[in-house]
Amino acid sequence: VDALAQAKRREATTHAREVRPWGQFTVLHEADGYKVKEVVVDGYGQLTRQYHPGRDETWVIVEGEALVERDGETLRLHAGETLTVPRGTEHRLSNPSPSRLKLIEIGCGEALGDEDTVRLDG
């Protein structure tokens, strides 16, 4: 950890994996303008309704089923399917089944952290 701190690496204070009430995510790669995460949503887990002013998100479902509310429409996505949520678009991701949902999220834009998440409910 000392070597990471001396090198001013973010890993010295921030873990690649974050656990949330709905599941967890792991940052796989991050560079200027994009971030790639593996997101796991527990059975029946649900994220908050939200939008991002500074980034687009593209989701690739790799396991399970996703229920996505996006700008008033509801979509069901399965393994192998992809969806893009443009910046500023209200959305909510949830898992309608008891099995885990796993997806790869690619965020592209100038704001890639939690500070760019505007939560519209709890």
Explain the overall architecture.
The chain is mainly beta. The protein has 1 helix and 11 strands, in the order H-E-E-E-E-E-E-E-E-E-E-E. The protein has one helix spanning 2-6; strands at residues 17-20, 23-31, 34-41, 50-51, 55-63, 65-70, 73-78, 82-85, 91-94, 101-109, 118-119.
Task: Give the topology.
Layout: H1 2-6, E1 17-20, E2 23-31, E3 34-41, E4 50-51, E5 55-63, E6 65-70, E7 73-78, E8 82-85, E9 91-94, E10 101-109, E11 118-119
Antiparallel strand pairs: 1-2, 2-3, 3-10, 4-11, 5-8, 5-10, 6-7, 6-9
Please count the helical segments.
1
Which value, in Å, is the CA radius of gyration?
Answer: 15 Å
Please count the beta strands (DSSP E, at least 2 residues each): 11
User: Roughly what is the average pLDDT, rounded to an integer?
Assistant: 91
Oligomer: single chain
Gap between N and C termini, in Å?
34 Å
User: What is the helical fraction, as a range of percent?
Assistant: under 10%
Can you list the strand order of the major beta sheet?
1-2-3-10-5-8
Low-confidence stretches: none
Largest beta-sheet details: 6 strands, antiparallel
Q: Write the element-wise H/E pattern from the N-terminal end onward.
A: HEEEEEEEEEEE
Shape: globular
Helix/strand-derived class?
mainly beta
Strand content: over 45%
